[in-house]
Each structure stands twice: as C-alpha cells, then as structure tokens.
C-alpha cells in the first residue's frame, strides 16, 4: 500500500497533474476531502509552449513548476510520484508502481499520448512533442543536425541534416514551423555562416485540404500565407505514407531526404487497465456522461483529453484543448463538493473561449467568440493569454524577459546541446 495517512475524510485520488488535474486539485482546497495526487513527474508542465523549447526559444525549466511548491499550504493534500498500473473498481483501489491506494472518488486526468495511426515506421523514426523529455530530445537533435551539416561534403548527405519535415497542420505543427522559420532567418546566418547560402528547408505536411481545420477558412488561409512568406514549404492534401531513418515518403510517389521528422499529427488516450473495454473509444478516450462520470461507474470520473463527452454542439466530442479540461475540472470540483452536502450535480456545457495559433513575430491568427483577427494584434493577444497561463510569478517573469530580449535582439539564448554520455 502507498503510505497515505488516514485523516477520516473521504478521499479523492487524482491521476495526472496537467491542466485538468491541477485545476480540480486547487479547486478542492478546504472542501472537506482528503486529496491525493498521482503523477509520474513531480512538476506541472505547460504544453502550449513546448514548441518554443523545441526551437531553442525557451529553456525547459521556465515552463515547468514543482507540484509540491504549489500545494505547500494545502491541508490534507498528498502528492505521490508513481506510475498508475491498473484500477480495481470493485475494491475501489488504484494500483501503482509504488503500491495500491484506496479511493472514495477517482478522477482520471492523465491526458493523451501520440498516435501514429498504426505506423511503426513513423513511431520509430519521428520525434514527437507530447512530453518535455521528447521536446528536449527534439531540440538536441535539431541543433546536432546543424552541426553535422558542417562536417559533410556530399550535398545529398547534407540535405538529410538540413531538411526538416513536420507532419500535421494543426496548431502545434503550425507553431513549430513558424518558430523554426524565424530561427532560419535570424539565428542560422549568425551561428552557422557557412550555411547562409544553403539554409535548412522546412516542410509542413497536412493530409487535409487546409491548415488549422478547427479554425475558419480565412484563418487557415492567413496562417498558410504567413508560413509561406516565412519560407516554409506547405504541402496540403498530402499524406506521409512511410519513412526510414533518412527519408519521408509522401504521395503521390515522392520523397524528401531528411532525418528530422517532427510528428504533430495525432493523439490518443493513455489506457489504464481495469476499466471495461467498452468504455474506450477507438482513439482511446473514455466515454463519460455529462457529469464526467465514467460510463458504468458511480465513483470514477474522467476529464480533459482522456474523456469523450458529447453535446448537441459537439456530437463528435469536445476538442482536446486546455480550456475543455479546465472547465470540466471546475464543474467536477463543484459537483464533488455538492456530494458532501447532498446537493444535486450540474451537467457540463462547454463554453468556447476561442482558438489561436502563432506563426512568428507579429504573425498570429485568433478567433474569439465575438471577433476574428490576424497579424500583430493577434500576436500580442496570444502572448498575453499564454503568459497569464504560466504557473508561478518567477516563471512568468523569466518568460517575459526572454520574449522581450528576443524581440529586441532577434536572438535566442538556449542553443545548447545537452546529451548523456555515449551520444555523439
């Protein structure tokens, strides 16, 4: 058993401390429950800025925040760094790598992972951006490619190091493409003067007929225009059909020489043993009712990317974005408090606060419920909203200073390759 003191209160166990898990844990302060948080990391991370770490624009530590520091002054809160193995719903126990833990209510907020749509080749040879470890690995390999490009004489061999292929034209793909294009313009000529005449080439591949499918056609078109003006080769209606360690194959019968494939095309739920197979969708999300209760259970809930809930406006489920997780967490915290008071629970209705993506300096597309706009205003709105979403005053200050310095100098300060012994 995990060593958790019994305080005599009903116990809520929260799995995962992303946007949903962190929000519900904070909202349950002084609620009368004992709260136990389970996560395989000891920090909260901010995925919307992963692409800036990947492109050497921010240091990883500036978008991470220690969980224990957040909850220092919360009474009867307990954090355990361990990995979940299974759920024993009959005995109301959670099985983890560190032992089992009893729960009265279980909240699953462990999010999603990469989906390679069954392609073992893509899974093996591409680099994803779902965890901070993946992002740091991507940055290291990207910078190492630039170094290696200087050591080869064969032009075809050099192309392998200088071609960057991004698969997936959603917000993550668009933003990493824009960030790398800025790096290409402002950093490569200074750091690698030998590559001024042969800069890296950035390809963005999207199978659909436009980028940013969740946004309006006008915003999609603007994003594409911004990227192409920045030097990105945008390939829509194009599928990546396969790859090896040196090549990406694209239809119809073409290929791109590269060993840097960035995968942003799909996600799937993280599965946990113990729940009936029928509660999972094909994409690994967990079916829940409008109170986020897992289908067929009474005391297990799922929120955020891992859950699948339908509304009239969202017959195919909610978008897997932070606002859904935060709003579901807020309502579930309210409902769990009402349970202690024997009050009725409320059903969830998603309130769309807008969608946005940034492509580079003064280039962004923003769609709010009451207005759509692009360009410099969108860029400032994007920066403000993301800065406010960062946990911790210190982290906000570090990111603000970093952005201000980059704005003034066109420079990025984290171009350091850090690898364990044994890597070249």
Any descriptors?
globular, five-stranded parallel β-sheet, 31% helix, alpha/beta, 24% strand, FAD/NAD(P)-binding domain
What report would you give on this structure?
The protein is of the alpha/beta class. The protein folds into two domains: 11-114 and 267-340, FAD/NAD(P)-binding domain (3-Layer(bba) Sandwich), CATH 3.50.50; 120-265, FAD/NAD(P)-binding domain (3-Layer(bba) Sandwich). Helix content is 31%, strand content 24%. The strands form eight sheets. It has a five-stranded parallel β-sheet, covered by helices on one side. It has a five-stranded parallel β-sheet with strand order 11-18-12-13-14. A three-stranded antiparallel β-sheet has the order 6-7-8, with no helix packed on it. Helix 9 (217-229) links the parallel strand 13 and strand 14 (233-235).
Q: Architecture of the largest domain, according to CATH?
A: 3-Layer(bba) Sandwich
Low-confidence stretches: none
Q: Say how many strands there are.
A: 25
Major sheet description: 5 strands, parallel
Going by CATH, the homologous superfamily of the largest domain would be: FAD/NAD(P)-binding domain
CATH class of the largest domain: Alpha Beta
Distance between the termini: 43 Å
Strand order of the largest sheet: 5-2-1-9-21
Count of individual helical segments: 12
Question: Helicity range of the residues?
Answer: 25-40%
Strand content is 15-25%
Q: Look at the helices and sheets and give the structural class.
A: alpha/beta
Task: Estimate the mean pLDDT confidence.
Answer: 93
